[in-house]
Design a protein that fits this description.
By secondary structure, the protein is mainly alpha-helical. It contains 14 helices and no strands. α10 runs antiparallel to α14. The longest helix is centred in the N-terminal third of the chain and has 39 residues. The two termini are 39 Å apart.
């Protein structure tokens, strides 16, 4: 009986320690974000004095007005949404099919395909050869430059394939006996049973696609295919130039500084993903845990 009470006290102490660590890490993540929100609602010149904590000292909406009044904002948002949706769903299907094929023990050249997909994780051709390849393929100044180069990622293949390997083969065998072909097995059995890992990988892809701006800068000319992230980056660079060159004469620069504009841009770009995440959290947590156990 004493041993049982001692064990309960040990478990309680361990749980308390885990909760304490979780609270500390949560605070480390949340507090800087709260500070960023406060900074985004604060007057720019006042923010230059420093000392902004978790509440704006001189409240203003000017920072967000400048962003929302940008004429190209709506078009850039549409491009970002299209890129995120298409760039998440299509690669998920492509990556899932590749992972499904790699689980086939009778696949000819299976080991070779593993090497082909893993090598690019460690070896890169470099920026110039990549640009020339995209140009030869007609992907520059083309919306498909956001989709085609990111159809299949080796890391995602490994995650999904590992999950597929853990599924009962009896289900597949039963489906084949009932007359199902490989595609039917994939879409009607593997995909429904693998929703946790599918949603997890999909969320990774969606966040990357939404936040990505470097490929826009490198492969897109003009502003017709600007994404939200690249548009805000251009606005920030323009504001920094205006602020440095003519702070006294530019009325907008008096109350708007690059620091507060950057904070407002961060909130604008992060908010959509933050709103989507709660709906996927159940699958996301389960997918990460299953991948951790099986990996």
């Amino acid at each position: 009986m004493v041993n049982g009470k001692s064990m309960r006290r040990k478990i309680t102490a361990f749980d308390a320690f885990i909760y304490f660590i979780a609270v500390v890490f949560t605070a480390i993540v949340i507090f800087p974000f709260i500070h960023l929100i406060a900074l985004s609602f604060n007057d720019g010149m006042d923010a230059m004095k420093g000392g902004i904590g978790f509440w704006p000292r001189k409240f203003t909406l000017e920072n967000y007005k400048i962003i929302l009044q940008e004429s190209s904002l709506f078009r850039a948002t549409i491009v970002s949404v299209a890129r995120t949706v298409i760039g998440t769903l299509v690669p998920l299907i492509a990556t899932g099919l590749v992972a499904f094929c790699l689980t086939r023990s009778d696949l000819v050249g299976r080991r070779f395909y593993h090497i082909v997909f893993i090598l690019p994780m460690y070896i890169s051709a470099g920026l110039i050869p990549t640009f020339l390849t995209y140009k030869a393929m007609g992907l520059t100044n083309n919306f498909m430059v956001y989709i085609v180069p990111n159809l299949v990622w080796a890391y995602n293949i490994i995650i999904i394939r590992t999950f597929f390997d853990g599924l009962p083969r009896s289900l597949e065998e039963s489906a084949i006996i009932d007359g199902a072909n490989e595609l039917q097995v994939f879409f009607r059995i593997f995909i429904p049973l693998s929703m946790p890992v599918i949603v997890t990988v999909g969320l990774f892809n969606a966040v990357w696609q939404w936040n990505s701006w470097f490929d826009t800068v490198m492969y897109i000319r003009g502003n017709e295919l600007d994404t939200l992230s690249s548009l805000l980056a251009h606005m920030l660079m323009e504001q920094q130039t205006n602020f440095i060159n003519d702070m006294k004469l530019a009325k907008r620069a008096v109350s708007l500084t690059p620091e507060v504009l950057k904070a407002a841009m961060t909130i604008v770009t992060a908010l959509p993903i933050m709103l989507v995440y709660p709906f996927l959290q159940k699958y996301f947590v389960k997918g990460v845990m299953v991948g951790a156990v099986k990996g």
